[in-house]
Specification:
The protein is 45% helix and 16% strand. An 8-stranded parallel barrel has the order 1-2-3-5-8-9-10-12, surrounded by 8 helices. Strands 6-7 form a two-stranded antiparallel ribbon. It has 13 helices and 12 strands.
């Protein structure tokens, strides 16, 4: 199974590129770059910088959107990065939550995502597209695999149907993960589904109860977005408010993360978030996480990308912990 890491483009592009090179040298397989134009540097410019300094590692957007970015613009940008990293670039696309909200737009509907992603695919494959009576195509097209991020059943099935792979945002708890993978496979409807990548918050720690507190905004955000029943099945009980606590720019990308954690205290207690960390995230010792990763692979995932809590700093501690304690276990030969 491929192991990757999520890098928010929270610093100048050359710094992000150098950090990605550290990830490559540490032996990881993938880097994934999120896209939100007001929070971070432009994802395609950063991806191009990463492509220029790395030689082996796979890189992808996790994820861009087709609301703030016109499908033709996305196709051209993806083609450009793919030329710089032949066979190494994946275009990850989603509904666009953190990109669209801060500029007063709404996320894509399933129908919109289906239509717009189809346009991107047609352009990258070299076919012409009708844009309201103007029929045109992309010069010098390059095939690029398109992976779709999803969490709810409808979008999971859509990812299985129309994308070359799926990025699962539902955590790594065994029952929800199995259900999500089943939805992707159902959407594929007879064809072999593309590779499945799972995203997971990760911290190597011997004290989950202490460190899990940082996950309270994540846990409450999932519960508020329709995931309360999934959480409850795993023993994570959350008092879901009508509105999420105010935080700039939003709860999941709060600039003052400590204040966001405190704002979530009335709704998510310490015991509940500790269960959330163990069940839905990869929090624990290196040995425990190693075991969980093998279970995720056995469930049908081909890749996992790890992420730290925070949007405005590089995951240096996570990389050091993974490279120092986790990767050697994953790469060790199986005895017997």
């Amino acid at each position: 199974m491929r192991i990757g890491i999520r890098i928010p483009p929270c610093a100048p592009a050359n710094e992000i590129a150098q950090f990605a090179l550290e990830v490559e040298r540490a032996g990881l397989d993938e880097v994934w770059l999120p896209d939100s134009q007001l929070l971070w540097r432009d994802v395609f410019a950063v991806a191009a910088a990463v492509a220029g300094v790395t030689s082996r590692i796979r890189l992808g957007t996790a994820v861009t959107n087709l609301v703030t970015r016109h499908p033709a613009v996305v196709a051209s940008a993806a083609r450009t990065v793919a030329e710089l990293a032949p066979g190494r670039f994946v275009l990850g696309v989603g509904v666009g939550n953190s990109s669209v909200g801060p500029v007063g737009l709404r996320p894509s509907t399933g129908a919109e995502l289906r239509s717009r992603l189809g346009v991107v695919r047609e352009l990258l494959s070299g076919r012409r597209v009708d844009f309201g009576g103007v029929r045109t195509g992309l010069c010098d097209p390059v095939p690029v695999p398109i992976h779709m991020a999803a969490s709810g059943p409808r979008n999971l099935r859509l990812a299985g149907e129309i994308a070359d792979g799926a990025i699962l945002l539902s955590g790594v708890a065994p029952e929800p993960l199995a259900a999500a993978i089943a939805e992707v496979r159902a959407g594929a409807a007879g064809r072999t589904p593309g590779p499945i990548t799972v995203s997971a918050f990760c911290r190597i720690t011997g004290d989950v109860a202490r460190d899990a507190r940082e996950l309270k905004p994540v846990c409450l955000g999932i519960a508020h977005n329709g995931g309360a029943s999934f959480l409850a099945k795993a023993g994570v009980r959350v008092a879901v408010p009508d509105r999420l606590p105010a935080s700039y720019p939003d709860l999941l990308h709060a600039q003052d993360w400590d204040a966001a954690v405190r704002a979530c205290d009335p709704y998510v207690d310490d015991d509940a978030v500790a269960v959330f960390a163990r069940e839905f995230c990869l929090y624990g010792t290196a040995e425990e996480i190693h075991t969980r990763l093998h279970a995720i692979e056995n469930a049908g995932a081909e890749a996992v990308f790890l992420q730290h809590v925070g949007s405005y700093d590089l995951p240096r501690r996570l990389l050091a912990d993974v490279a120092g304690h986790l990767t050697p276990r994953l790469r060790a030969p199986v005895s017997g």
